[in-house]
Amino acid sequence: MRSLLTLFALSISFPSIAQQIVFLGNLQDAGAPQFNCDKSCCLVERPNEFVASIGVYSGEEAFLFDATPDFTHQASFLQKQSKTKLSGIFLTHAHMGHYTGLMHIGREASNEQSIPVYAMPRMADFLETNGPWDQLVELKNIEVKRLSGTENLKTISVTPIQVPHRDEYSETVGYLIKGTKKTAFYLPDIDKWNVWKQSIIELIQSIDYAIIDGTFLAEGELERPMSEIPHPFISETIALLDSLPKAEKNKVWFTHFNHTNPVRDKNHPTRLKLEKEGYHFAEFAQEISLN
Ligand SMILES: [Zn+2]
Ligand SMILES: [Zn+2]
Ligand SMILES: [Zn+2]
Predict the structure, then answer these.
(1) How much distance in Å is there from the Cα of 78 to the middle of ligand 2?
(2) Per-residue H/E/C for the chain
């Protein structure tokens, strides 16, 4: 009887609200078509292909993860899907695809008021001490919130996890996003899995969704030395995860595709083969549930 009462009380205090992750983009920072690329990957602009970002909405809150150059399409779509106003933005790092979309909320644009922007200390300093971003701070278009651990929002919690990446202007983080029942990890950029002190295999086993760096499919994709811009190749990630059961592979969603990455093509044989093995590839407007 007591347990029934407890259940009843819990259901009152936590009414079941949809907690959703919506994919808002799947491309590397420079998007596609890329300037001066005259290869087949950039011949035609494909509809609804935007720079990597996710939205997370739950109840009356809707958060954007990264402010990409495609911010306008992405934040508008998030507001439409969530039927609520943008509640805040979590930034991963200071590379062009991940924060420059903030330009769309300043005085020359929609002139928002006090949008919370969650960032690690170096990233926060970067925004506050460099133009034009410092103007967003001075004019109170954004309110910079320094992250020092888990951020408890109304119905979800968000924890930054630092990763090795080319940190010229800021740290780089991935985010653990915890809903009522399920947890997702969002990590669009990391140099290589083996230079990180954490094991990606153990992390995947402890969560429900891993939305991770799939920038390049394999070595040889670019004509310039790929060691200058290290990322775990999808070929390396699947080799690392090979011994895991299909249920674990099923948690993986690749994103942040370079314009040259053949997996952008939904019918590419390698992509179809990997999907059969359980892997997913992020596509605009797809949703997954945190409850
Ligand atoms: Zn990036
Ligand atoms: Zn291209
Ligand atoms: Zn980056």
Answers:
(1) 27
(2) CHHHHHHHHHHHHCCCCCEEEEEEECECCCCCCCCCCCCHHHCCCCCCCCECEEEEEECCEEEEECCCCCHHHHHHHHHHHHCCCCCEEECCCCCHHHHHHHHHHCCCCCCCCCEEEEECHHHHHHHHHCCCHHHHHHCCCEEEEECCCCEECCCCEEEEEECCCCCCCCCCEEEEEECCCCEEEEECCCCCHHHCCCCHHHHHHHCCEEEEECCCCCCCCCCCCHHHCCCCCHHHHHHHCCCCCHHHHCCEEEECECCCCHHHCCCCHHHHHHHHHCCEECCCCCEEECC
